[in-house]
Structures are given as C-alpha cells and as structure tokens.
Amino acid sequence: MNKISSKIVFLSFLISLIATFGSLFFSEVMQFIPCTMCWYQRIFMYPLVIIFLMGLLYPDEKTFKYSIVLVIIGWFFSVYHNLLMFKIIPEDIVPCVQGVPCSTEYINWFGFITIPFLSFVSFSLILILLFLGKKGFLKDEE
Questions:
Q1: Do 114 and 105 contact (CB within 8 A), yes or no?
Q2: pTM value?
Q3: Per residue in 37-50, is it b (16+ CB within 10 Å) or e — as a string?
Q4: How far apart are CA 111 and CA 121, in angstroms?
Q5: Which residue from 15, 69, 78, 125 could staple onto 119, CB 3.0 to 4.6 Å apart?
Q6: CA atoms of 26 and 45, how far apart (whole Å)
C-alpha cells in the first residue's frame, strides 16, 4: 500500500471491531435498547469492520475512499449526540421522538464516559489514523 499503510488499516480495523463488539455487547448482553442516534452511528461503524478487513486481506489504495465517507458522517452523528448528552443542544430538536430518548445515559464512567462518548472516541481515532495515513506520516517499512 502506498497511500495508506497496512498498519493504519489494521489499527482502524481493531478500533472499528472493538466499537462494533462493544455496541453489540451493550445491546445484546446488557439489554440496553439503542436510541435513534445510536442506530445512525451503528450504520456508519459496522461496515467499517468489513471495509478495513477487506483492506487488510486485499490491500487496496481505495480503502481510504471507501471508508472516509462513513467515518466522517459517523463522526458528525457522534458529535451531535455528545452535544445532546452534554445538554448543549436542546432535547426538543433531536430525532428521538419515539422509543428510547437520545439523552438516556446507560453508563456514566468517571462522570463523562458515556456510550456516545465512546462512539465519538472511536470515530475520532479512525479519522485521525486515516488522515495520518493519507498524508504519509505513517509509512510501511520496506
């Protein structure tokens, strides 16, 4: 791989895999019902596991193009969800009109680590890794 190193793809794969298993753990094992914003973030996180896995198995320079759109949109949803959780955005303008409110806190570790925060960290790390790889800061050793 020239533009994006296999290390970047591997790290991005690990982060997306952990995020995917984490969200499945919270919903399937802990029985936390996902809100609408959580579903939107899942829609953009779950395919990343497959895209990065394919990027590892069949190295392709287009892995960046395939993944960056999903990462950016998912990142915006996670930012929006965190602004809602920190009460910067009023709850009246959120899409959660039915079911579980988007402001529901299932976990709150250390006073700030919530499920939307974990999503934000995951999307942010992948976004940073992809841009570092695209700019050539982290190159494969030859």
A1: yes
A2: 0.88
A3: bbebbbebbbbbbe
A4: 16
A5: 78
A6: 15
Block residue for tokens 């409110």: 101
Report how far apart, in Å, the C-alpha atoms of 86 and of each of 19, 50, 89, 98, 102 are: 21, 32, 8, 21, 12
Residue 23 confidence (pLDDT): 95
Sign of the alpha-carbon torsion through 42, 122, 124, 37: positive
Give residue-wise pLDDT tens across range 25-77.
999 999 999 988 899 999 999 999 999 999 999 988 888 889 999 999 999 99
DSSP 8-state secondary structure symbol assigned to residue 85:
H
Burial status of residue 77 (CB atoms within 10 A of its CB: 0-12, 13-18, 19 or more): buried
Residues in the chain: 142
Measured distance CA(46)–CA(51) in Å, rounded: 9
- Distance (Å, whole) CA 40 – CA 60: 27
pLDDT in tens, 88-103: 887 777 667 677 888 7
